[in-house]
Amino acid sequence: MEKKIKGVRVIGIDDAPFDKFKDKEVLVIGVVARNGKDKVIEGILSTKIEKDGRDANEKIINVIKNSKFVNQIKVIFLHGTTMGGLNLLNLNEIYKSLKIPVVGVLRRKPNIESVKKALIKAGKLKEANLLECEFEKLGKFYVKMVGIKKDELIDIFDIGLYTLRLAHLIGSGIMKGESKGRL
Amino acid sequence: MEKKIKGVRVIGIDDAPFDKFKDKEVLVIGVVARNGKDKVIEGILSTKIEKDGRDANEKIINVIKNSKFVNQIKVIFLHGTTMGGLNLLNLNEIYKSLKIPVVGVLRRKPNIESVKKALIKAGKLKEANLLECEFEKLGKFYVKMVGIKKDELIDIFDIGLYTLRLAHLIGSGIMKGESKGRL
């Protein structure tokens, strides 16, 4: 079992900071790493999504599908379940399309009602109804899991958080010149 | 001694891929990491330089000087001694300005004559004369050291190569959507 977990590759995906008023597109970054003592970083993927748009799901599916890592990635970690503002992710769809388990990770308890209100205000009624809201607590984090169970997740949660943190640092460093903050 | 080396922070700097004909600016990425078993990545810096311009040295000095890591970084690793095409780096100047040792690292033996010719062709006579050409072999690499000796470098060469590799992966992943190749 130990050996199995060690070789496991995961991807952590986060959006980069953006200007709410000026930017039309938002950079999304994926970090591929292999579990083990060294946490080897094997690759960086990126794509651009429309701010508050509807293309995040498709773009993320495609960037993974078209990458050389597609057959190696065992779990997809997402920072939250929205990217680039209100560009909603559908974890079930990603799982169905790629046949790779998907985990949305949040640092704080999600405020579902406030996101729903924002979606409705933006005319996204369909999305408001599809918003992911079943988060479970895992350590200090809140997770939404599709295609993977909590006891399977625990073993690779560290490497998942590592890739998410790095995706966050890269996004922040590229867009602002210096990385700030933490996942 | 072991302990001292463990805590040491270094930065590895590389330019991202660019289009020789279309791009006017080139993204430059710095990865700050702490030496030790875990090779903790502490931050990402970035700046933009003019393709074939003369601002690489100043921009790199400034991005380090203005970062929260400036007093912690013990060695600056550069992938080569030119960035963004023919935008020349002056390792002595960086060392003088920041008081941090600087190491230029190349995978292959540099073809000094061919770079000199390109510089002269581009009207950069001054730069052609200032081109770094004293590279020493270290393992499989060629290095130019300023402010640090070979025996001091050996202990932190691994973490330096790690940050350079990561800066390369990030640049490639951001500009091309997927990271390719190796340092």
- Work out the count of structural domains of chain A: 1
Instruction: Please name the fourth-level CATH homologous superfamily of chain A.
Output: archaeoglobus fulgidus dsm 4304 superfamily
How is the quaternary structure best described? Answer: homodimer
The CATH topology of chain A is given as archaeoglobus fulgidus dsm 4304 fold
Describe the model.
- 2 copies of one chain form a homodimer.
- Chain A is α+β, with helices and mostly antiparallel strands.
- Chain A has a single domain, classed as archaeoglobus fulgidus dsm 4304 superfamily (archaeoglobus fulgidus dsm 4304 fold), CATH 3.30.2170.
- Helix content of chain A is 37%, strand content 29%.
- In chain A, strands 3-2-1-4-7-9-8 form a 7-stranded mixed β-sheet. In chain A, strands 5-6 form a two-stranded antiparallel ribbon.
- The longest helix of chain A is centred in the C-terminal third of the chain and has 27 residues.
- The two termini of chain A are 29 Å apart.
- The model of chain A has no long low-confidence stretch (mean pLDDT 92).
- At the A-B interface, β2, β3 and α6 of A face β2, β3 and α7 of B.
SSE layout and pairing:
The structure is a homodimer of 183-residue chains.
Chain A (H helix, E strand, L loop, with lengths): L1 H6 L1 E7 L9 E10 L5 E11 L5 H10 L7 E7 L2 E2 L3 E2 L2 H8 L3 E5 L5 H10 L3 H6 L5 E3 L2 E6 L3 H27 L7
Parallel strand pairs in A: 1-4, 4-7
Antiparallel strand pairs in A: 1-2, 2-3, 5-6, 7-9, 8-9
Helix pairs in contact in A: 2-3
Summarize it:
The structure is a homodimer of 183-residue chains. Chain A is built from six helices and nine strands, in the order αβββαβββαβααββα.
